[in-house]
Amino acid sequence: MRLFSLVMVFYIIISVIVGALLVGFSLHLFELGEITTFINQAYFDYHSRITLGATGVVLVLIALLFAQATSDRHEREKTIAFNNPSGQVTITLYAVEDLIRKIGHEMPQIKEMRPDVVATKKRGLQVRIRLILRTATNIPEFTAHLQELVRTRMQETLGIEDQITVKIHIAKILSQQEKTRKNKEETDSSVQEDIQVPFPRR
Length: 202
Known about the structure:
Blueprint: H1 2-26, H2 32-44, H3 46-76, E1 79-84, E2 87-92, H4 93-105, E3 110-120, E4 124-133, H5 139-158, E5 164-173, H6 176-194
Parallel strand pairs: 4-5
Antiparallel strand pairs: 1-2, 3-4
Helix pairs in contact: 1-3, 2-3, 4-5
C-alpha cells in the first residue's frame, strides 16, 4: 500500500512537470534557440545521453511497478479471505453476490434483485442491493427484514466476522396493470414459440 502511494505521488509530480512544460511551450515561454540547444546537447553529449537513458529505464520500471500494484490491489478488492487451521480460504465477491441473489429468489415480493458487494479493510463488506418489487408492501418492514436476512445468511454461510453493511435501493414497484401486461407478453411469447409452420411439400 505504501509503495502504491509513493508511485502515485511520483506520477503526479511527473504529470505536473510535463503539463507545465507543454503549457509553457504552447505559450512561447521558452525561446526556440534554447530548446534547440538543449536537444542538441542531450543528443550529442555522452553524459546527457546516459542520464536520459537511465531516467527512461527508471520511468519504465516505475510504470511496471505501478501496473503490478494496481493489478494486485484490484484483485484483492474482488475477494475476501479468512484463515482456517489448515490454511487460507478466499471467496470471490461474485460468489457472495450470487448467494444474495438466491435470497431474492426465495422472496415472492421481489421481481428482480441486483446485488453489488464491495470489500474494504476499514468498512468491511458493503452490500448494495437494487430491487424491483412485484407488488406494494410495507417497505420499512420488508427492507429491514431483507437487510437482516442478508447479513445473517452471509455470516452463517461465509463464517466471517467483518462488519456487513446492507444498503437497499428500490428502483421500481410494479403496478397491477404492469404485471398484467408482462404476463400477457410472456403468454403471447410462449404461444408463438409453440406455433410450428410446416414446410411446403415439393
